[in-house]
Write a structure and sequence with these properties.
19 helices, about 45% helix, three-stranded parallel beta sheet, about 475 residues, three-stranded antiparallel beta sheet
Length: about 475
């Protein structure tokens, strides 16, 4: 799809609110959003909430929260199917009048028996058309007190074919499809019918969705054709597999998008990762959402399943953490640090600390944990201190502490002064850096000691070195 579409581009993301926003749904939303942005079109958010037993307000909010965190802002909506019941009933009445739908009084048990007989005969299990009106056909007597469903009168012959802009041409014979129930006995319309009417009313031009919907597409196409409606173009995206190559599951994989902010991932890393998980732009691996919108024209979509790789996501998150504003990182890290007992009064500025620590971490949570050494009282292990604070090192440390009172307090000046003290005492850097780290931070592993000292500040460093006596 390299040329601009002839009609205005209108895409939609239409989740069912039966749980959280999962990674596959987020990728579908991203692609639909980017496609609309690329062509200057409209991105619609629609909540398909007709499954009354499973849909919940909490799930609706979880979807909206996930979209907001990712920054996938919709232009219209959210629209709720349960608020469009009058419109669905209106169309069903028109279809009954036109003869493209009919009342079916078969009980669920009778329909199951039909399917069992078809299976036993080696045929596809289906409704057998008992109540389907045909010229010259005499229908059974209406059972007393039984409310009917409404079925769509699917074409008996021919086929449904569409040019899927992910998978290529897909063709399904009408004989594979039985007469779909489009309204339940209580009058509530069913999923495929609602989707078709919504896409018509919202003038959706392009539908991007998971390939688990491929079997729904011919049904929706036939409904739209029956009412003389234009068809959107369809693209069905392969599923995302877990790191083990199997379908992603809640038990093994972080499939809920809102787990990622809790685990310290940045939205731009998730978006970049999801964009690349089924789409490519040359060999580019790192790109902004502005670039995705500029490039995403519906081409270069993979028609094979993509496999989730946490190492790749961590690499991207590390990249974006290094690029991120330190004040923003501080706002994200501080709540976790407070929960871990961080004391900020009299401590170094958190943004400056994070600037030093962020090079080596994959998540904001790791960054917050690493930064804790600046915001708690050091408690060096006595055995380690005895090992590294030797009689040979103590005079050098005393000289270092004395010179800390007057040296210019910069990383460069501290480094130069340390080298002078080492040379004067015939020592190597690790011999003094290790006890310094223990005394100042309580840890043996820290970033470069001169950078650590600079951030702690002169007063804190002198106070902690005073333990030398």
């Amino acid at each position: 799809m390299t040329n601009a579409p002839a009609k205005p581009v209108r895409t939609r993301f239409a989740p069912s609110p039966t749980g959280y926003l999962h990674l596959g749904g987020a990728r579908t939303a991203l692609y639909s959003w980017a496609f609309a942005r690329h062509f200057g079109g409209t991105f619609v958010l629609r909540i398909e909430d007709t499954d009354l037993e499973r849909s919940t307000p909490e799930a609706v909010q979880a979807i909206i929260d996930g979209m907001a965190w990712l920054g996938l802002t919709h232009d219209e909506g959210p629209f709720y199917q349960m608020k469009r019941m009058d419109r669905y009933r209106e169309v069903i009445a028109q279809m009954l009048e036109a003869g493209t739908a009919y009342h079916c009084y078969s009980s669920p048990e009778e329909v199951q028996a039909m399917r069992d007989r078809a299976t036993a005969a080696g045929e596809k299990p289906r409704y057998d058309g008992t109540w389907r009106p045909e010229e010259g056909k005499v229908l059974p007597a209406i059972p007393e007190g039984r409310k009917p469903v409404v079925r769509f009168k699917n074409p008996l012959d021919g086929e449904v074919s569409w040019n899927d802009f992910v998978k290529g041409t897909i063709t399904i014979g009408n004989k594979e499809l039985d007469d779909l129930v489009i309204a339940r006995p209580d009058g509530t319309p069913t999923y495929n019918f609602c989707v078709a009417i919504d896409d018509l009313d919202m003038e959706i031009s392009h539908v991007l969705r998971g390939d688990d919907h491929v079997n729904n597409t011919p049904r929706q196409i036939n409904i739209l054709r029956a009412i003389g409606a234009p068809l959107p173009e369809y693209g069905h995206l392969p599923m995302i597999l877990g790191s083990d190559g199997q379908k992603m599951s809640k038990r093994k994989d972080a499939v809920n998008v809102m787990q990622y902010p809790a685990e310290g991932y940045l939205p731009e890393a998730i978006l970049n990762y999801l964009a690349r998980l089924g789409w490519s732009h040359g060999d580019d691996e790192v790109f902004s959402m502005e670039q995705v919108c500029a490039w995403f024209d519906g081409t270069h979509l993979s028609n094979s399943a993509a496999q989730f790789n946490i190492e790749k996501l961590n690499w991207l998150n590390n990249h974006y953490i290094k690029q991120a504003d330190n004040e923003r990182l501080a706002a994200l890290a501080q709540p976790r640090m407070v929960a871990n007992g961080a004391v900020f009064e009299g401590a170094p500025a958190l943004p400056a600390v994070l600037a030093l620590m962020k090079e080596r971490v994959n998540t904001v949570n790791e960054l917050a944990d690493a930064a804790m050494l600046f915001f708690r009282t050091p408690q060096p292990d006595a055995a380690l201190l005895a090992q590294h604070l030797t009689d040979a090192v103590k005079p050098a440390l005393a000289q270092f502490a004395e010179r800390c009172k007057t040296v210019e307090w910069s990383k460069e000046a501290l480094s130069a002064m340390m080298k002078e003290v080492l040379a004067a005492n015939g020592l190597k850097m690790p011999q003094m850096a290790m006890p310094l780290r223990l005394l100042i931070t309580g840890q043996l592993q820290t970033p470069a000691i001169d950078a650590v000292l600079q951030i702690f500040g002169r007063d804190t460093v002198l106070a902690r070195l005073s333990a030398l006596g």
